[in-house]
Amino acid sequence: MLRNKNLVPLSRQHQHALALCVRIERASPICDSELDAWQSEIAQHFRAEIRVHFAAEEQVVFPAARAFAELNPLLEELLSDHAWLRERFALAEARKLPAQELSTSGRRLSEHIRKEERQLFERLQDLLPMDQFALLGSRLEEALKDAEQSCVLPADTTR
User: Fold this and answer.
1) What are the residue ranges spanned by the domains of the chain?
2) Which of 10, 15, 58, 62 sits most deeply, having the most CB atoms within 10 A of its CB?
3) What is the reported pTM?
4) Largest CA distance in the chain
5) Cβ distance 54 to 10 under 8 Å?
6) Burial category of 32 from C-beta neighbours within 10 Å (exposed 0-12, middle 13-18, buried 19 and up)
7) CA–CA separation, 55 and 35 (whole Å)
8) 105 closest CA partner among 32, 11, 25
9) How close are the terminal C-alpha atoms of the chain, in Å?
10) 97: left (phi over 0), alpha (psi -120 to 50) or beta
């Protein structure tokens, strides 16, 4: 299904995060000599974009979706994912994320994004009236304004 234009900024950020997930998967298993560089890059992604992205979803998209009881179990799952992922990002920031968890985190982030795109966004596009989507879009624009607009470049070690 074609993505509603009001959700496109989130979908674009999902693409950035999925690119990171693919790179982590291709580099796995991560060797100890590369672990610090990977943790640095992951923490940078979180600070630059994912942190703001999660907050925008939690403050704008999820409350709009709560109006539809059928989406509530999915929303609980997504919120649980956010909490788990935030913990991993904090570990990466502190350079305490073990290599095997780095790979697990990449897979879990990828699965989380696919749930949002394929389940939440698709269903929300069926349920939410267009006038409410326009309001959601303007609120998202405001919520995402602090996200960096440039792409996080990989370090030589993580290329």
Assistant:
1) 8-146
2) 10
3) 0.90
4) 52
5) no
6) exposed
7) 27
8) 25
9) 33
10) beta
pLDDT per residue rounded down to tens, the chain (159 residues): 799 999 999 999 999 999 999 999 999 999 999 999 999 999 999 999 999 999 999 999 999 999 999 999 999 999 999 999 999 999 999 999 999 999 999 999 999 999 999 999 999 999 999 999 999 999 999 999 988 754 555 565 566
Task: Count the neighbouring beta carbons within 10 Å of the beta carbon of residue 40.
Answer: 16
